Amino acid sequence: MGNSEDNYGAGNITVLEGLEAVRVRPGMYIGSVSTKGLNHLIYEIVDNSVDEHLAGYCDRITVTLEADGSCTVEDNGRGIPVDMHEKGISAERLVFTTLHAGGKFDNSAYKTSGGLHGVGSSVVNALSTRLSVQVKKDGQIYEDSYERGEPTTALIKGLLPVTGKTKEHGTKINFLPDDTIFDKTRFKEDDVKSRLHETAYLNPKLTIIFRDLRGDEPEEEIFNEPEGISGFVKDMNKGKEELFDVIYLKGESEGIEVEFAIQYINEFQENVLGFCNNIYNSEGGTHLTGFKTVFTTVVNNYARELNILKEKDSNFTGSDVRNGMTAVISIKHPDPRFEGQTKTKLDNQDAGKAVAKVCGDELTRFLDRNLDTIKAIIGCAEKSAKIRKSEEKAKTNMLSKQKFSFDSNGKLANCESRDASKCEIFIVEGDSAGGSAKMARNRMYQAILPIRGKILNVEKASMDKVLANAEIKTMINAFGCGFSEGYGNDFDITKLRYDKIIIMADADVDGAHISNLLLTLFYRFMPELIYEGHIYIAMPPLYKAMPGKGKEEYLYDDKALEKYRASHKGSFKLQRYKGLGEMDAEQLWETTLDPERRMMKQVGIEDARMASETTDLLMGTDVAPRKAYIYKHANDAVLDI
């Protein structure tokens, strides 16, 4: 621990530009204004505290979800600089009111940092109804406060007021998200806990305390993982048949620190997670590409040296050698470049080279001394290759016998345009709703694909049943890009015929189940459709309000109905839509199909590990954990009465 003697002061805070347009376009900075974006506010503040830990000045972070709906993040780092900046005001005030103002741009302040743009603190401030800052530094307590990004504490000659004395050091930030910006302002505790636990695995000497004070009983969890990413891999493989102990290796190349942990289980799956400067990169990036490329090369080299692969045999594919793999790759980069503020994909070419160098050298050194381990890995690759080849043969035979026309056996009412960037396809359950949708649509750009009832739950089905299912085959052929599965990859997103694939189901329990079955199919067999933003869920209205005088109005949820009742004067009739089939073609166009007026949810994945675990929990074969989850979250359910 240290504080003032480390010369972390106003001179380390570099200002690039003023705070602009955050409230107007919040999605540019936090990804969305949904629960995902809401939780991201916490992560922005936590990441700043983690950067203090990486710099060697913080070993404890406390995150509290307060009873009033706000969040408090407190650390025992050096404390945000409060002295006078060259701009003429306290450095802390600049950090919270100026976009691109932070210690991340000063190389002497942080060697590595999760922050890319230095916008975290100011963005959280701009998107909060209120925010307060308490800094403990140099024996003094300093405080500042804001409302929707505007300061409410008066500075004294440009400096923060001193409100007390202390022997402690660190920063405490409390903020209440702005309900005029976010769709919902209740933080999702499971997602927050998962992210904090993840951060603890990546920082073995850091303790993170999570508290939730919003329920009847306060909840507290302490995350401290001295085994680091090895413990992370063990945790992901808990309860599964492990083929060998976790391999943990590390090294450095060109100033980039690389560590990775690998373990194989006796299942056909692959789970590889990439992190840069403690930030999870859900879309991967150059570090994962470097790891996968060199790992495939190393395994194939050993397979040939051990004469397991003969001269006539083709190499194992990347998916072959990663069959059964669980791995975490974590790098520390002095100057990371990501695609987007939410840091979903790493873009540094030198990161890929560094990971390939370290992994190639260290893995070869380890496997030379552990031949049983490489033989186990090659055994998994052999099983995968064998099944892949037989499945490829089966798929080729099936598709050649059943060459579906573009209209998918007459079920698909296709659109006239062949410009995929403008086209969209609606997957509609039921003949009556499908008939209305076909009449209502814009035939130029909108295709309608009716499906009958609930499709197969692919999480519980064998591959041959999935491939034989008529509804699934119809969708695969309509989309035009094939599909992925555990033994190979025939998916080619460049062949996708529609920019938007829209699930259009009834607004009831059965409709929600159909949507979940379709999402499970897309996630397990065509995940790129989700990762690249092509999957949507239509939001047909729940009600139609028909006043005696005035304009009829569609209401999309109960919250909208409450608002309408509060603002509308006089009596009105209320129609409750239980299903899409209750709407005629004109109503369906007005509410659900018209791009100018409709509402839709775009499906995305923030955390691949949680997405996989949740899909397995809710749609898999193990009943007991699902029951426990339902009991725990029963109060969160929206009842359809």
Explain this structure to me?
The chain is flat, with a radius of gyration of 27 Å. Helix 2 runs antiparallel to helix 4, helix 2 (35-54) runs parallel beside helix 5 and helix 7 packs across helix 10. The strands form six sheets. Strands 2, 3, 5, 6, 7, 8, 9, 10 and 11 form a nine-stranded mixed beta sheet that branches. Strands 12-13-16-14-15 form a five-stranded mixed beta sheet, with helices on both faces. Strands 18-17-21-22-26 form a five-stranded mixed beta sheet, sandwiched between helices. The protein folds into three domains: 4-223, Histidine kinase-like ATPase, C-terminal domain (Heat Shock Protein 90, 2-Layer Sandwich); 229-393, Ribosomal Protein S5, domain 2 (2-Layer Sandwich), CATH 3.30.230; 404-540 and 601-610, Rossmann fold, CATH 3.40.50.670. The chain has 19 helices and 26 strands. With 641 residues, it is α+β, with helices and mostly antiparallel strands.
Briefly say what this structure is:
With 641 residues, the protein is an alpha+beta fold. Helices cover 35% and strands 20% of the residues.
Give a quick set of tags describing it.
Ribosomal Protein S5, domain 2, 35% helix, alpha+beta, Rossmann fold, single chain, 641 residues, 9-stranded mixed beta sheet, Heat Shock Protein 90, 26 strands
Give the overall form: flat
Q: Kindly, what is the distance between the CA atoms of the first and last residues, rounded to a whole number of angstroms?
A: 57 Å
What is the fourth-level CATH superfamily of the largest domain? Histidine kinase-like ATPase, C-terminal domain
Rg on CA atoms, Å: 27 Å
Helix and strand content put the structural class at: alpha+beta
Name of the CATH architecture of the largest domain: 2-Layer Sandwich
User: Stretches where pLDDT falls below 50 for ≥5 residues?
Assistant: 1-5, 104-109, 401-409
Overall number of strands: 26
Strand content is 15-25%
And the CATH topology of the largest domain?
Heat Shock Protein 90
CATH class of the largest domain: Alpha Beta
> How many domains?
3
